[in-house]
């Protein structure tokens, strides 16, 4: 059986996902057989796995850092928010149920078994497992039946390294306060700490670093400066999507829906030097100079269609098309472009029918069966072959489907309007393929100038070097049991 070390944070968004990816790449560069693991993740940005399930996109990136294809065991519990108070529960890649937030605590005792099963399978295959916690162990109100942080650490007997985020301020209180509120037994599982996201000269924090050591008795493993190239890696949260400021080039605008899902479709486009990418937030008006508007995937298609209308974006989209603009709908965004979305079984809420935007002559019927698959598709217009994945419910039909976006196993996918300016598809991840992205951009007279996969590889290596320069990576990996 392999060894394992767990990275937990003093709060959400302290950089755990990125740091686990960097540690995975650093271990791989040392010739260690390594795999990532996150017991429980909450994200609508999912990835399809080689074994037919779905996991958090962050774990897929971490697997890539290890040189592995993602599997469901790397993230056995995935919570996909459907409303403000409820989530779909994915267990080992497959939908188990949907629950209200208040009822999830009752479900957690049943989930520790699958979590430990997946963890032990990985330990049997690899020399080292690097585990990522969720949120913070300081949320002691959630400690009972916990499977994401100290509850998992205790059950699996995995030592913990605690990460604090100095960029948000109060990092001394973050680390010392965590020790103050958790139990003595849980504190004993924490074997050290390090500080992330420092801006400026790390030596300026020497005194604070010593204060944390003296108050906690935990050894420190380094102060990591801000990693400026983090934006080049796939974002786990849509609010984290960053692009260089560009004022020219093909202007692509993506509507930031309230339940936006699988938005990693945007990352490769944002890397292109001749593409200006804008994430349009709630309350903002669609820019008049937009060339292409993307309606992304959604975990709540009917709900996000109402959200879109509440922003007035339906009116903006109609004006955009009158100006000669283009629209691309991806998955849920594709469904919104049609005449109606029919949900007889209440898959996404109360049963009923929602009027679509009417830009494509199609109708979608929601079905209980979810399709999750990694596939190879053929672009209908250019004939280019490309890898992609599907994660969706619903069946879409209509006259515009006679002009498909692509073919999967010889069967048509998606639809294109008669004037070819509105198109939709169920396929995700297609823009990661450099050749397909080049073909797609060429129709808008844009030359593809970036290699996305090469950029991710180079950035992961730079991240590993960043860790090795500023943290005791050998010491961290040496904590594993």
UniProtKB/TrEMBL annotation:
Catalyzes amidations at positions B, D, E, and G on adenosylcobyrinic A,C-diamide. NH(2) groups are provided by glutamine, and one molecule of ATP is hydrogenolyzed for each amidation. SUPFAM superfamilies: Class I glutamine amidotransferase-like (SSF52317), P-loop containing nucleoside triphosphate hydrolases (SSF52540). Residues 5-237 form the CobQ/CobB/MinD/ParA nucleotide binding domain. The lineage of its organism: Bacteria, Pseudomonadati, Pseudomonadota, Alphaproteobacteria, Rhodobacterales. One of its GO terms (biological process) is cobalamin biosynthetic process. The keyword Phosphoprotein does not apply. Belongs to the CobB/CobQ family. CobQ subfamily. Keywords: Cobalamin biosynthesis, Glutamine amidotransferase. Signal peptide: none annotated. One of its GO terms (molecular function) is catalytic activity. Residues 252-435 form the CobB/CobQ-like glutamine amidotransferase domain. This is Cobyric acid synthase. InterPro entries: Class_I_gatase-like (IPR029062), CobQ/CobB/MinD/ParA_Nub-bd_dom (IPR002586), CobQ_GATase1 (IPR033949), CobQ_N (IPR047045), CobQ_synth (IPR004459), GATase_3 (IPR011698), P-loop_NTPase (IPR027417). Pathway: Cofactor biosynthesis; adenosylcobalamin biosynthesis. The keyword Lipoprotein does not apply. Transmembrane segments: none annotated. Pfam families: CbiA, GATase_3. The active site is at 331 (nucleophile), 428.
């Amino acid at each position: 059986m392999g060894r394992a070390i767990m990275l937990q944070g003093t709060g959400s968004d302290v950089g755990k996902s990125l740091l686990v990816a960097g540690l995975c790449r650093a271990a791989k560069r040392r010739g260690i057989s390594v795999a990532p693991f996150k017991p429980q993740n909450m994200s609508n940005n999912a990835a399809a796995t080689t074994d037919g399930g779905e996991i958090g996109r962050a774990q897929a990136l971490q697997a890539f850092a290890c040189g592995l294809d993602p599997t469901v065991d790397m993230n056995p519990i995935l919570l996909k928010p459907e409303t403000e108070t409820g989530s779909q529960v994915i267990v080992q890649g497959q939908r188990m149920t949907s629950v209200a937030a208040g009822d999830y605590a009752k479900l957690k005792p049943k989930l520790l078994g699958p979590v430990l099963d997946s963890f032990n399978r990985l330990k049997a295959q690899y020399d080292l497992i690097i585990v990522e916690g969720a949120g913070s162990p300081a949320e002691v109100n959630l400690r009972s039946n916990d499977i994401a942080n100290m509850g998992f650490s205790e059950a699996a007997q995995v030592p913990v390294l605690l990460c604090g985020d100095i960029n948000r301020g109060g990092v001394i209180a973050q680390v010392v306060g965590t020790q103050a509120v958790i139990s003595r037994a849980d504190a004993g599982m924490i074997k050290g700490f390090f500080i992330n996201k420092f801006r400026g000269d790390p030596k300026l924090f020497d005194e604070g670093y010593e204060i944390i050591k003296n108050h906690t008795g935990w050894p420190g493993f380094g102060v990591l400066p801000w990693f400026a190239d983090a934006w080049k890696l796939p974002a786990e949260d849509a609010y984290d999507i960053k692009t260089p400021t560009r004022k020219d080039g093909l202007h692509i605008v993506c509507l930031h829906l309230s339940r936006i899902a699988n938005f990693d479709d945007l990352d490769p486009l944002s890397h292109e030097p001749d593409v200006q990418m804008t994430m349009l937030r709630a309350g903002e008006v669609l820019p008049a100079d937009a060339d292409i508007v993307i309606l992304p995937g959604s975990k709540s298609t009917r709900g996000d269609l109402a959200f879109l209308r509440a922003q007035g974006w339906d009116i903006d989209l109609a004006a955009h098309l009158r100006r000669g603009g283009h629209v691309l709908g991806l998955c849920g965004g594709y469904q919104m472009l049609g005449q109606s979305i029919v949900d007889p079984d209440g898959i996404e809420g109360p049963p009923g029918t929602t009027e679509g935007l009417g830009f494509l002559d199609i109708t979608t019927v929601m079905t209980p069966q979810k399709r999750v698959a990694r596939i190879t598709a053929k672009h209908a217009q250019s004939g280019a072959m490309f890898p992609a994945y599907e994660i969706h419910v619903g069946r879409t039909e209509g006259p515009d489907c006679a002009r498909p976006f692509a073919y999967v196993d010889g069967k048509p996918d998606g639809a294109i309007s008669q004037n070819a300016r509105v198109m939709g598809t169920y396929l995700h991840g297609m823009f990661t393929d450099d050749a397909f992205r080049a073909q797609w951009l060429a129709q808008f007279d844009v030359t593809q100038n970036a290699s996305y996969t090469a950029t991710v590889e180079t950035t992961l290596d730079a991240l590993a070097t960043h860790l090795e320069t500023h943290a005791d990576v050998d010491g961290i990996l040496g904590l594993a049991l």
